[in-house]
Amino acid sequence: MEDPLKQLPEILNNGRLKSIAFKEEHRQKVFQKTRDLNKPPAPKSLWYHWFHQSLSLALGVAFIFIFIQFAESMPLKMDKNKEAENTSEIPYVNQAILTKARHDMRNHHDVTGIDAYQKGDTLTVYIMFPEDLTQDEHIFLTESYLKEVSHLTLNEPYAAQENLGELWNYVNVKVYTTGTTDNDMQADLLQLDQNFEWLGSINKHDGVLKWERITDNDKVQKTGNL
Amino acid sequence: MKTVSEYGSNEFNSQYLSQEEWLIHIMDLYQDKVIRLAYTYVKDRKLAEDLAQEVFVKCYVHKDNFRNESSVKTWVYAITVNLCKDYLRSGWKKYIHVIDRFGKSRQSSVLTPELSIVQKSEHEALAEQVLKLPLKYREVILLYYYKELTVSEISQILNKKEPTIRTILQRGRDMLRRKLEKGR
């Protein structure tokens, strides 16, 4: 018996697929498509170029900005951490301690005027003594004041620090003193170099209070351990 | 310009032809075969027309890739089969196809009034059952019986081993026989 499938070409071509044909219009479409493939790409409009360039520029700037931010972020953090570490290492002489020491000096030792502030690792003090006190008394009272400030700042017993206090290992001190004035204290503070006679300074590395006269050219230097 | 008949054969040497001439000859030789083969895959006239156009554009574009390792016929059929399968695999196209068929089923129908009269004939029943076979069996049956290709050519087109093609062919025949017997 003959395989009916062998008649399949005849069956399909004369039956279901009889009207399926590739017409001239389809051929023309193929030619059109092949012609389109060979066509050079249409020139882009000015708007396209403008938009493309603007977008590229914006993306470029954004990328550079992000890159700079990223590049800067790490060193900045390290700097901040360093600064924070340094700050945490410096004992802070707060205003209450300075106020307490100032009151003690004015009430118990008749000091005319006294003011102090800390900026960074330097404590600056301005002291005006009464006219009748000698230079040695000025030095003694200044040391008393500094010891009190140092003592109040520390948690450990004052005696254990040999009456000096560890504060001076971390803080530089500048003490401006003068022995006479009728002027207002604040007015004097505005003209430090002219009106203060002596400058006592402690360098945090050696902890020694050194004095020098700042009113004339012949500077007299004195040194004393606090 | 030379015509196909001047070459005296379905195969011709493409090196003497311009690309456009070559395309014309390819279309002269295979246009109806390609569109009908495409129809057996997608079962839609419009889609078959579009796919056949794509086949010839692809032939044009990839002409230089043809290495004479197989016949031009096998190469063109392979492109057709791959394009149709790509289409059937594409989810979006499948969706469009279903929608399109749903809306235009009447317009796309290839049944003429005469055909509808003989629709119930044995031949028509056979054609119908062949087109209803699963794609795996349908393509082998059609390539073998309808396109009259050898097992070797089918294995080249479908990129499968010859024993596999023979097995599929046999199973397809059995499946078809069972369906036809069931329909009687």
Automatic annotation (TrEMBL), chain A:
Swiss-Prot/TrEMBL keywords: Membrane, Transmembrane, Transmembrane helix
Keyword flag Transmembrane helix: yes
Transmembrane segments: 50-71
Domain of life from the UniProt record: Bacteria
Name of the protein this chain belongs to: DUF4367 domain-containing protein
Organism: Fictibacillus barbaricus
